Amino acid sequence: MKRLITFIAAIFIFLGFAFFQGNAKQTAKPKVPTVGILQLMNQPALAQIQKGTIAGLKSEGFVKGKTVKIDYQNAQGNQSNLKSMSEKFENENADLMIGITTPSSQSLADVTTKTPIVLGAVTDPKGAGLVKNESHPGGNITGVSDQAPLKEQLDLIRKLMPNMKTLGIIYTSSDNSAVTQYKLFKKLCAEEKITLKAYSISNSNDLNQVSQTMLQNVDAVYVPTDNTIAGAMQTLVKNANNAKIPVFPAVDSMVKQGGVATYSVNQYKLGVMTGQMAGKILKGKKPASTPIQFVKHGELTINLKQAKKLGIHIPESLIKTAETKGELFK
Prior knowledge:
By secondary structure, the chain is α/β, with parallel strands linked by helices. The protein has helices spanning 2-27, 44-59, 79-91, 102-111, 150-160, 176-191, 207-215, 227-231, 233-243, 252-256, 267-282, 304-309, 316-325, and strands at 34-39, 69-74, 96-100, 117-120, 141-145, 166-172, 195-201, 220-223, 247-249, 261-264, 293-294, 299-303, 327-329. The radius of gyration is 26 Å and the shape is elongated. This is ABC transporter substrate-binding protein. It holds the Pfam family ABC_sub_bind.
């Protein structure tokens, strides 16, 4: 009899354990992935990309603080910070990393060849050594390029500056994106028979003196996608205004800061594309077979107030286009 009671008790214990174990499995919360976002510095364009990235992740079902943990790090333009922050992501076993700008992405690539990395705003992924093939990346890295629509931009400058004889370009010599765009823009100007004078800086401290020298020798200035100059745009605009020379930047946020006009990649939408790609990879899509995405056409952004200040006539057709399909600052 005792054996029977013991046997029955054992059955009840086993069934109870199985019930609670099954119930625990049903109520267990799914793993919340960690995404590390590494941004090079504080500047308006990069801030828009970062905001767009969060929105893009959300559109794929990854809501910050709920269904995804976001570890956002800003290196404040410091290379050593990029290294330590990248290592932090790797040490905490982040499920995916996002690099906003080329230096950020290169730093992430230095710490892992396994964790998926999504490029946010890398102008030339192949030239930067991040992927071997933009159509078939083949490794743990893919992403979105912010290559500017250079032909559209140059055509716009010519339209607004019909009497221009010499166009200046200023860029940071250590910025891979800026150097890539300078080379492409130089080739384009040669094809269009436009005289281009190039000026480079090493860091933001050089911008004041170099820009003043440049403004004595050109009729207009073009600024490529350049994080250093974007972060010190007010210095360039101040000097250009004193010289009555218009500045045509590659990025829409730099138009708001005092540029005249541009056809540019919308930085927020670029971020959304980055976040959506990251979300798909978190769901199982492989970076190796995910092509780099490019934005082929830019949106028109015009700073009407700046144009009037410099006496530049903006055709009504362009104003209407900016109002309806782009952005107009009055």
